[in-house]
Design goal:
It is built from five helices and 16 strands. It is of the alpha+beta class. Strands 6, 7, 8, 9, 10, 11, 12, 13, 14, 15 and 16 form an eleven-stranded mixed sheet that branches. It has a three-stranded antiparallel sheet with strand order 2-4-3, with no helix packed on it. A two-stranded antiparallel sheet has the order 1-5.
Length: 304
């Protein structure tokens, strides 16, 4: 018998300008290709999709650019993620969580309650808790979560303007350029399809990362990465572009036998450090993950 999980956190999407959609239903089916069309039809017929003012959306509701719609996610037989998050710091305004691999930050795909924000809301009772930024489900490490909706924008803005120093660690293939240990990567990234990003020639650069090779072990390199911008999958694509694809990356590497949900083979990417000036208190804040990479077990104990 199937069991159903319903998210306690509504999901929102703003209808973009253009696109040539006759109805909102048509847009939703296009926008979320992983969710079968009958699922969206059922959600709309059961009044689970509405505008953010509460007005219900029907199958025939005309497309209306720039309006925001709200829907409740529910999934069948949601899988339990067998790893726990850890709260490293907490004050009146925010908390810093140390996220395990495989745990999404927000409801997505087949996960609605097995997410970082839902777990923390449920455990601590913070009804307005939300993240100031995101990291991939496949990535472990630090996530800054804001307790109050009224101040969330202050912390999100820090990430948007590059006022947060973010340091990642990754284990990847050793590049063919023997002897080189530093790369300053600037490139233009665009979607290849709904799930992949790619570097494309021409046009202005829209992604930038600083990459240092800081260790070697059994033919694998340990990389220290500092993203300057925050494009989707940026570090994964940038490392692949220099021939240093991340170990166990199911999307951007030659590890074709890796299943993205194989708990024995987590992608070797860790959000290791966060440094910023608290926009509320003016205090300088620094945080470091307690987690390590399988390929370099002692990595987190270093000074990087």
């Amino acid at each position: 018998m199937n069991s159903y999980s319903k998210s306690i956190i509504p999901s929102y999407v703003t209808l973009p300008s253009g696109g040539g959609f006759a109805t909102i239903y048509e847009f939703i089916v296009f926008r979320f290709p992983r969710i079968p069309e009958p699922v969206w039809r059922e959600r709309i017929e059961l009044n689970k999709v509405c505008f953010d003012n509460g007005e219900m959306i029907r199958l025939t509701t005309p497309y209306q650019a720039n309006r925001r719609i709200c829907y409740d996610r529910d999934v069948v037989n949601e899988m339990k993620i067998p790893f726990d998050e850890e709260v490293l710091f907490e004050n009146d305004d925010f908390l810093v969580a140390d996220k395990p691999h495989f745990l999404p930050v927000h409801p997505a795909g087949g996960y609605v309650n097995e997410t970082l924000i839902t777990r923390l809301r449920t455990k601590y009772g913070y009804e307005e808790l939300g993240s100031a930024h995101r990291i991939d489900r496949s990535t472990a490490g630090l996530v800054l979560c804001v307790k109050n909706r009224s101040s969330r924008g202050l912390y999100q803005q820090m990430f948007k303007v590059g006022a947060v120093k973010k340091i990642y660690l990754a284990a990847g293939k050793l590049p063919a350029e023997i002897g080189r240990t530093h790369w300053h990567i600037k490139a233009r990234m665009e979607p290849l399809d709904p799930f992949h990003m790619q570097i494309v020639p021409g046009g202005p650069d829209n992604s930038e990362s600083l990459v240092d090779l800081i260790g070697r072990q059994d033919g694998i390199g340990l990389f220290r990465l500092q993203p300057v911008t925050g494009k989707k999958h940026q570090l994964r694509v940038h490392l692949d572009s220099i021939g240093a694809a991340i170990v166990n990356d199911p999307l951007y590497s030659d590890y074709s036998d890796v299943d993205g949900d194989d708990y024995q083979q987590p992608m070797q990417l860790l959000a290791h450090r966060l440094e910023f000036t608290d926009p509320v208190t003016g205090r300088r804040m620094e945080f470091k993950s307690n987690r390590t990479l399988q390929s370099f077990v002692a990595a987190a104990s270093g000074s990087w």
